[in-house]
Amino acid sequence: MHHLTYLEAIVVGLVQGVTELFPVSSLGHNVLIPALVGGTWAKDLNVAKGESPYLAFIVGLHVATAIALTAYFWRDWVRIIRGFFSSLRRMEIETSDQKLAWMIIIATIPVGLTGVIFEHWFRTFFGVASRAAIFLIINGVILYSAERFRPRKSREADQQLLTEREPEPALVGAGGGPVPRAAQHASGHRALRQEEIATAIQSDQRITAHGFGQALIIGSAQVLALLAGISRDGVAMSAGMFRGLSREDAARFAFLLATPVILAAGALKLGDLFGPLGSGIRPQILAGSIVSGVGAYLSVRFLMKYFRTRTLTPFAIYCLVVGIGSLIYIGVK
Hints:
15 helices; single chain; mainly alpha
């Protein structure tokens, strides 16, 4: 019977849920944590081992993360899926929803094919703590470069979004007096939801204006995330910024691209979860997956607001510090 403690499951589940969406590489952290903690953690959570129960555990975490992303973007996915089927039915690609659906499909093909063919080799060869630390440092360099050297078009797109957003006027009643607090709350909630929907649609229109070739380039960057230590969202967002997207639109497109990739990665490995590798540890997998899903949902809510006005630089610094620190610790351990 395989062994995985609830403490290991909950800690790694939380780290997975957060780092899958924060541009700091969940796979890199999944490799580094057992090596840095040592002891039974290094034995129980060995991702490079061919028959490790850790693989079944990671499947559950991936599925939970994909569900969290789908829950956050569910309105968007309804529009995108409708756009896909209307495109097939009418044999056209005209609306932004139709274009975005095909852009996501095209962008997913490179990482999907590479993952199916080389996933085992990437995981076993690069799933070593010292290599993960090196690639985490490289990830930090990529994130820093994305901010430091992004083109003028991307910077101008950021500035345009800032100037378009003006503070909402205060709510007043028909007689000029203040609106009651309960009415303000209800009205504010509806207004916020409508604003979020409108903002998402406008963002999709800006993204689809860049075309299918740009989507393929941005999607191809996700292949680098097969290397433990390189963030899928980080490299996709960096590529989007280099191709002229605003930071906010690049983040949104990266998160939309991540959903089918993460879900497919989990679905393709469901045999590990329900097979012998998951035997005896499914309650722990469930506990870790719940924590991972909640962490992922809260993370994407935070990041979608964060990237409206703030940069990738803090994440770049984090990756450099943790990567260098891990290399030093592993070297002297």
